[in-house]
Amino acid sequence: MKASFLGAGALALLLAVAASAASAAPAGQAGTDLDRKVRAFLDSHAGQWRDMNVSEADGRILYDIIVKNKYTRALEIGTSTGHSGIWIAWALSKTGGKLITVDIDEGRHREAVANFREAGLDAYIDARLADAHELVPALPGPFDFVFCDADKDWYKNYFVAVLPKLTVGGVFTAHNVSERMRRGGWGGASFVEHVLSLPNMETTFAEGSWAGLSVSYKRAEK
Fold first, then answer.
1. Alpha carbon of residue 82 to chain centroid
2. Which sign does the torsion angle of CA 88, 93, 97, 103 carry?
């Protein structure tokens, strides 16, 4: 056999290269398999998301924000049954991050956990059954991505609680929000007015979101 004529050093090098290639291949395959599993799950549930879940278009916006900015420490306030959490966690699977998501309703929480597992994303998600009014202020952070989709009249309170834990360059996104709400008496109006008044928050409203989605990046204080 030709291998018998190789010196010990050369043989060891060949074995190391082979081992490295073998270990790299499954990692890439695992990513491809996960993408396929998540996509199949989303396709099989298309049009079935109710109970205050986001649309697929809004899920894609959240996914793109995370991947583009390479965010890794995410918080979701209001899990519902998990549609937005799946898009967020799918993005975090690309960046090596993890999501903490909170919901107070036991039935929604249980269904979301099952959906996360079926989609193959449960390893990227810490789903908590809790009152976000109490838990969010108690979470230590830091976070670089926050998605708020809970009780609208509490949005400002969630934002105030999270802002000190949001990293510079991080983003606070809020669902069912548009700029015109600052002039109305709707539940999210105080949040919109507040976030737009802050000089260190760069806020826009996502195009392509029918429900309305604010996107507020935290900038360094001047």
1. 11
2. positive
| Domain boundaries, given as residue ranges, for the chain | 56-218
Q: What single string gives the DSSP state of each residue in 158-182?
A: HHHHHGGGEEEEEEEEEES--GGGG
Interval 94-121: pLDDT, tens: 999 999 999 999 999 999 999 999 999 9
Q: Give one DSSP letter per residue of 193-206, joined into a string.
A: HHHHH-TTEEEEE-
**CA dihedral sign, ordered 90, 91, 94, 95:** negative
Sheet of strand 143-148: strand arrangement: 125-129, 98-103, 73-77, 143-148, 166-175, 213-218, 201-205
Other CB atoms within 10 Å distance of the CB of residue 127: 22
- The hierarchical CATH code for the domain 56-218 is 3.40.50.150
| Gap between the Cα atoms of 150 and 154, Å rounded | 8
Tell me the whole-structure pTM to 2 decimals.
0.83
